[in-house]
Here is the input.
Amino acid sequence: MKRRFPLMLVFILGILGIMPYFVPHGGYQNFDNALRNDFIRILSAFAIILGLVSLMRVHHDKIRRKRENWQYSYVLIIGFVVSGVIGLLGGIKGEMFLPTNVAGFHFDIQTLYLNIIVPLGSTMFALLAFFMASASYRAFRARSVESSLLLSAAFVIMIGVLPLADRISTHLPSFAQWIMDIPNVAAKRGITFGIALGGIATSLKIILGIERSWLGGKE
Amino acid sequence: MTFVILSGIFALAPPTGVHAFDTPNDGGGAITIEWQISADDETIEGYEIYRSEDGKEFEPVGFVGRGRTQYEDDTDDTKEYVYKVAALQNSQTAHSEPTPPIRSRSQWFDMTSANLLIGVIIFCSMILYFINQAKKGKALYIRKISGLDAVDEAVGRATEMGRPILYSMGIGRVDYIATIASFNILGEIAKKTGQYETSLLVPTSDPVVYTVAREIVKEAYATIGRPDLFDSDKVYFVTDSQFAYAAAVDGVMLREKPAANFFIGYFKAESLILAETGASTGAIQIAGTDQVTQLPFFVTACDFTLIGEELYAASAYISKEPLLLGAIKGEDLGKVVIFSALVIASLIGILTRFPILKLFQ
Amino acid sequence: MKIIEKLSRLDRRIVYLVLAAAVLLPLVIPSVQKVRVMTPVAKLFKAVDATPDDRIIILDFDYDPQTLPEIEPMGIALLRHAFKRKIKVAVLSLYVQPLGLAKKALDQVTEEFNGRAESREDSIIYGRDYVFLGWQPPPIVPLLGMGISITNVYTRDYYGLRTDSLPLMLKVKNFNDVGILVSLSGSTAPLYWVSYSQTRFGVAVGAGITAVSASEFYQYYQTGQFSGLMIGMKGAAEYEELVESNLLLKDRRKASEALGSLTAAHLTMIAFIVIGNVGYFIRRRRERRQP
Here is the structure.
């Protein structure tokens, strides 16, 4: 029963999930909407509690056992508590009980977000350029015919999009454009077909209970 | 007098042939009104749609620009309506004849999706047929996927070095197909790490994904008879913020120095940030995603990459379960069908360019 | 030989340092690079340029701070184009975060034009030449609702004014009165306009996107669902080039200035790849000689 029940649930909910694509009836659509929007939101809300408990436990444990870099766990826990209190009691722009503007100094959630999360996010995004450089330097090797082709295509695109490409040859930018327009789109469409079919097959296997690795494998 | 004659000559022509019908293939609450454009369509501003419940008092319910011949009105399924359409020019309007009364209804089947349903049924039948073949014991061939052959090597190496294995599922939600495929692989990898008693770290970025991943690892250990190995602090939730998650996983890689990193699931711009940091620690890296734009990054920075559907096939490949292999065979046949359709359509497309072969047009 | 071998095994921190220098130095002394305009951008320019007098264009500002450097120059170039040609513009965002960035771009370009205007006719006036519709959640509401009535979806603009009181909006009812809608985004927002608004109401859609996400959009451009595309810094620079050469507008071209940096970064990466490969070949040859 411990295994059969989840499998049955997956089967029933899987079929119910496919039906709204074919059944436009208002009553059924409302039911589907409740299932997708309301139930998933309620589930997520409880899952967030579980997730946060797990996060706190991991860091609490790290501090208790004084594992490597345990000091940083204090940063996390203090950050969690402070932003939680400001967000829950102060509201997004400080419109609730907690005053988030002291003598012209704002510390509401919106301000914290714009001045901490946004620049940190941009910094991580900018790191990509450096990682691209080091990854291509380390790994782009003309080991075989295929990798040489790939490398040549990369050079054509990288130079083709530069203003100086025109000075090398007027055909170079057009060739770069052609690579993006034709071989790139063709390959992408091919992979998309495979992904779509694979997606259907994976869903079918799970709905029918053939794939049960997510249950820890066969009994 | 002159004015009357002029306005008689230049009277605005109303739209003609106005008819209203229940919008087909919908959940009710809509009526479609269609008409033929007014003779003065070029000069008018557009068409105003009027509605009445009693056939006497009409009120405007919508407006569309000139040249358009259709309008969909939101309705109440319990009421009957009569419609009129008027051409509008400056302050002048020209009303059409009213339509007969009409009521909107809900449909139980969307005929426009019939082709989709037939396609899905045919494709699913193919998969089921091959699964059935596999059940009967027919041996099925699956080509080598080197990324998955390396799983054993990665687990073995981690065991020898006494270092953990990192498994990241990216930033996908639980309903993304890549996340689901990643769950299947996680189950298999957890079993292997359990057999060697190697530690498995699973930082997650979605609370629901976290709860499922935790159960999978727990079940996998239970399946191999080692439920005691499960440590709830090794599978944990970090944050749902994309780059904060990337920073956290980078941190784990730099501090714990896992011997093998798996990046399997749904990834966006953080793919290279993770893979390149992992490469700098010297770990064996196996990646897999169906996000085409991230594949080049993984291919460059990882030792092995599962491309698109290889990711979906992975659990069948690792477990060598015949029923799962059957499903892959079905997928392949599906691809053959699509490929043939494309080739035939392209051929017809090319052939119609030759005047002699007008036959195909 | 030894030097090349050493160069091919540089520490990654040196790679980062060299790249940082290559990116930063050209930005210190900005100079405008001339570019050749490629078809996707030329098509977009033509589509905007062909907007008849009785129609407007809609600019959807949907980029966030992460992608601002790449996409903002596109928005600015489009605004300059429209204002110079006296094409009426409606600006909006599908999400809340880009609103501030949209306002920043609008303020910059209106100031440019009004700073050198000699008469009321020359200046760019809110409500007459452009409107800022703001944000109306969830995205599906404007995507579909604007096909029926724009003023019904956005009853009030960003500044809280009633949209049906603005002179520009009096003649604009729905997508029928829109020449083209250009969506500027670091994510997939342009695809929403195609799948919802274009499929249902036939509005022409153009897009400005980041270089890294470009391969996702090409297939829709090929099928004609996008009237034109601006891709990354180079696409923005091409549009700036068209605006300057066709409309004789001499304003600051941020994307074109950044091309120097982009060129240096690309060349540095190519150089690193070449060095890495030369080192690899030397090693391989030696290993073959001494098995």
